[in-house]
Amino acid sequence: MAGSNPNAKPMNLTLKVWRQQNRNTQGNIVDYQVRDISPDMSFLEMLDVLNEDLLRKGDEPVAFDHDCREGICGSCNLFINGRAHGPEPGTTTCQLHMRKFSDGDTITIEPWRAEAFPVNKDLSVDRSAFDRIIQAGGYVSVNTGGVPDANEIPIPKSIADQAFDAATCIGCGACVAACKNASAMLFVSAKVSQLALLPQGQVERKTRVENMIAQMDKEGFGACTNIGSCAAECPVGISLENIAILNREFLAAKATSNNLA
Amino acid sequence: MILDAKIPDGPIAEKWDKHKFNVKLVNPANKRKYDVIVVGTGLAGASAAASLAELGYNVKAFTFHDSPRRAHSIAAQGGINAAKNYQNDGDSVYRLFYDTVKGGDYRAREANVYRLAQVSVNIIDQCVAQGVPFAREYGGLLANRSFGGAQVSRTFYARGQTGQQLLLGAYSALSRQVAYGKVKLYTRSEMLDVVIIDGQARGIITRNLITGEIQQHAAHAVVLATGGYGNVFYLSTNAKYCNVTAAWRAHKKGAFFANPCFTQIHPTCIPVSGDYQSKLTLMSESLRNDGRVWVPKTVEMAERLRAGQIHVNDIKEEDRDYFLERKYPAFGNLVPRDVASRNAKQMCDEGRGVGSSGLAVYLDFSEIIKRIGADGVSQKYGNLFAMYEKITDEDPYKQPMRIYPAVHYTMGGLWVDYNLQTTIPGLYATGECNFSDHGANRLGASALMQGLADGYFVIPYTIGDYLAKTKPVPVDAKHPAFAEAEAAVRERISKFLSINGTRTPDDFHKALGHIMWEYCGMARTAEGLQHAKKEIQKLRKEFWQDLKVVGVNDDLNQTLEKAGRVADFLELGELMVDDAYNRNESCGGHFREEYQDAKGEAKRDDENYAYVAAWEYMGDNQPERLNKEPLEFENVKLSTRSYE
């Protein structure tokens, strides 16, 4: 082993993991022991160890979503010890490392809990509601070709930076999981803000916010009560300010709507 | 067989315009009578699906992720090249073309590369119009930076998350077409075979990863945008799901596989920390703009470092060997990826590597931190520094990063002609899935460019030419070819579930990865490759006798998914070894130890190997047949790459 911290000792842990066969069955918590876990392992590598053990014993491994394992694809989504993506702020589950835990710890691992995110199996949930919200208006309606030269649309650096910050949302759903109302306001506001800030987004500014909010409500997400857990648990630091922008955009759109639909 | 790439004649700068005029068009009213399948929703797939739907075709888009936005394009950090010359520093379409052909060590097809450079400028316009928040200057115009291997600043970027922003742009365009009903989106659907009718691609077979349902999908043409195969090495910077299955299934149905041994090893990755390691993390190449690469001057000092007797910050300036700056004064730390990687390996082989494993070199930011302050550095690289600290528990603001090369990108892929059509009519391959534009080595910030060029600006024209020659009547979805392909897919799944052996898919995958990295990685020899071939054959035999998969097909079964992907990697691995053995030269990412000069630089053999090696599947456990596409260089003079 050639870890960055050669003195760190391996850990033995108790895991309490949510197991559920599919979305039509009831689930329950099952206890597992994992041994000799290196502090340099990522949380998902620790689950890999568990799954390889289960498989060798002929048991079904724990299903969970993951892919890039570098914090950008937004696939991983574990609710660890009661917190979305676990104890470390500003971190996706895949970037959480076992050095944040101690030998002998008991760790509870659950899927995102929200009506709009039904469980597929074990820790994997269905987040297609997010895709449908984007489909409702999270875009600028330009076809390929026939667009102006990129530098014909000057944008003040401060605006571009603010739009970028909103655009970094990875669509993981931690905001929904962290919210006691299972509201998707932070997710929706990030896209609405990005496009409302930029000149390219002005033409569809009003219809966009109205349609995305309507779809959000239709999907069964809860209302926002300004608690702020979403922003506190967001792994990429999407600011609560975006929800203020969203509210303003929505009110302005409703007051002066040109949405004929 | 000599392959015909269907390159249009005429001067290089006029080929694409001429071709666009010569291709057949589909009448606007007829476009809705054609169905096109696009597999993969990364940059190449999402851009193609959106653009084809905008033109009026009916598109079915497939992804094995839960959302198109998860595709691995999202992880690209550094940027996207375009020949805009916004910086007035001498860039041009011709220069981007020239740099790409040279950077690819003269193993790319000139005409494709020129077209890529031409449409690069349109990509930036398109992305900005979509609302992609590229970095800007205070005057409000777009910012650029120079990027590995280029002497002009032509790289557009969005902090260290350019791939994410470009993919979300393409995803938004795709989502808009889904809302319009022009794209039918199939998520959590993995393509397991392509359906061929009368020699033409007419559909695919998929498995729904949640329910296990096997589905048949018919269309007039199929586009594969399914990415690269770097995960054949098990450890790579690729996302865990990246695999070769779609491309390999197509290969076994008749699509030639080109230059499989051309693998890019990226010089700046976080070193391996233990046996449990599941993937490697890239630190963007943009860091080499400001970071300086070094190792201790002496083996003795490196040994003391590794043993923890001295700290890196204690090593004096005069005891540091900035080996890239020393060996390549003109390019310094910005030499192309293959050169930087090989040199890092060489330092470690000499015993001057650092970190407790000795398999790492330093990437040092102390100078830039002194010059512009930690805040300034954070503005540029904040997210990368934070990621590094999370993974290693070391603060790169206070001590140099440790880096080591890792598998990152595969230049090889399905052979395509100038129209991006494979050797199966009606089957196209775009983005990393094809082999076309990067030769033996890809330049930094060129993968995003190629994926979007193919999807937004090439395939919408070239697929029309094919469809215009196809009758606008529905594909016969009852054709027996569909049932046959489905039966084969089902039989394979049943086989995986019935072996009931002792070794897991990951176990086999790791074993394969070890063989590939050892014998077909950064340095290769004829002897090693011969050995690897036998080892892979042995491992493959064991796989089919001793694989363990539990659970059933009709359920979310991630072990079953892995088994299918590993089975295909076990076949691809052998082909890569064959290809590397056949190519008796060193070029780009392919370094054969027998072919180097006195200074250890790659020795290319243009007389005998200036060709694309396109392999043809001849049946299970039969040697594949080598077909050649000779490469002609009419515009860029063949010369030895030198970055001194």
Automatic annotation (TrEMBL), chain B:
Catalytic residues of the enzyme: R337 (proton acceptor)
Keyword annotations from UniProtKB, A to Z: Cell membrane, Electron transport, FAD, Flavoprotein, Membrane, Oxidoreductase, Transport
One Gene Ontology term of the molecular function aspect: flavin adenine dinucleotide binding
Pfam family, one: FAD_binding_2
UniProt record, GO biological process: anaerobic respiration
Domain FAD-dependent oxidoreductase 2 FAD-binding, chain residue ranges per copy: 35-448
Record EC number: 1.3.5.1
Cofactor: FAD
Subcellular location: Cell membrane
Membrane topology: Peripheral membrane protein
Major localisation: membrane
Listed PANTHER family: SUCCINATE DEHYDROGENASE 2 FLAVOPROTEIN SUBUNIT, SUCCINATE DEHYDROGENASE FLAVOPROTEIN SUBUNIT
Protein name: succinate dehydrogenase
Organism ancestry: Bacteria, Pseudomonadati, Bacteroidota, Cytophagia, Cytophagales
